[in-house]
Design a protein that fits this description.
Helix content: over 70%
Number of strands: 3
Structural class: mainly alpha
Strand content: under 5%
Oligomer: single chain
Radius of gyration: 59 Å
Length: 263
């Protein structure tokens, strides 16, 4: 009888230990302690029950981690879609700005080309006017002044000679003769000095001033022609740049729209 009771007590103790091990993740025992790692230890007689906190939380953490990863993936996809939409909007604005700028660029280029054309025409006209009209006229004017001065001097010499001859035998007009002859002689001298100055001016005109002015007008015409050709090149270049910028903007939008359609 005593043996039966001993075996019954041992069986009860064994069942108790087994139950404690199977419920180690959720049982709480008053007699026990928690170690530095957060695990719970409980002692029932000679049997020690240990509740592992890491094993108890691992299943919960795994589920929460999977949910968190899925949420992060969804957020990343949403952010990427928003970025693509924003990029497409900016590309459309860039295209609109480029189209608005086209009219301004073409107008400025056309005005520049027209202005260069007018300046070239004016320079060429000024050169032709100078060569065919102004230069010959100024040469003729200078030559005419010299010819007139020479003729005036010649007449003055004749008049002076006649005065001297007239007062030669007049004994009662010595003072008058002296005054008249002196005055006419001085006038002849002034006329001769004036002729010399006109001849010097004419030489400077034909030898330096007119050739220098002609060279300047020819140079101005060449520069105007160069500016016109440059304006023509700039107009062609601007048109190509316009086509390139519009094409790039339109292609970018088409690419972004294609990418958005795949989402």
């Amino acid at each position: 009888m005593f043996g039966i009771h001993a075996r019954s007590a041992s069986l009860v103790r064994a069942l108790t230990v087994a139950a404690l091990f199977s419920l180690s993740s959720c049982i709480f025992v008053a007699d026990g302690y928690r170690d530095a790692e957060g695990n719970w230890h409980s002692t029932d007689g000679a049997v020690e029950v240990r509740v592992d906190r890491a094993s108890a939380d691992s299943e919960s953490d795994g589920k929460d981690g999977a949910k968190g990863a899925t949420a992060k993936t969804d957020d990343a996809k949403a952010d990427e879609a928003a970025d693509k939409a924003h990029e497409l909007m900016l590309a459309q604005l860039d295209l609109e700005i480029a189209r608005l700028s086209v009219d301004v660029q073409r107008t400025e280029t056309a005005n520049g080309l027209a202005r260069a054309g007018r300046e070239l025409a004016d320079a060429q006209k000024a050169l032709e006017q100078f060569k065919t009209v102004e230069m010959p006229l100024r040469v003729k004017d200078g030559a005419f002044d010299i010819e007139r001065s020479k003729f005036s001097i010649e007449i003055k010499k004749i008049e002076l000679e006649e005065l001297i001859a007239m007062y030669k035998n007049d004994e009662f007009a010595a003072s008058t003769k002296e005054i008249v002859v002196k005055r006419e002689t001085k006038e002849l001298e002034f006329m001769q000095r004036g002729l010399a100055m006109e001849e010097e001016k004419f030489a400077t005109l034909t030898g330096f001033e007119l050739p220098h002015e002609l060279a300047e007008k020819e140079d101005a015409a060449r520069k105007a022609e160069e500016a016109f050709k440059k304006a023509e090149v700039e107009a062609k270049k601007t048109e190509l740049e316009i086509k390139k910028s519009l094409s790039e903007a339109e292609r970018k939008i088409a690419k972004l729209e294609k990418e958005a359609a795949k989402k």
